[in-house]
Design a protein that fits this description.
Length: about 70
Amino acid sequence: MAESKEIRYEINIFWSDEDESYIAVVPDLPYCSAWGETYEEALAQVKVAIRGHLKVIEKYGDPVPEPKAHQIS
């Protein structure tokens, strides 16, 4: 089974004291983020945000950014 496209994007999730929640951001998709009261909720919500972000990009005929490889050191 092929992995869905949104899963291939890097997702960074961190705790925000200011927001008192977990914040999830997608570095390869500018302004694509979500939050949740738990890590798992933030992850689920950002997957929804990615799908929506990609639909809008495709609707307007913009090129869909390819997920970039990020080196971890």
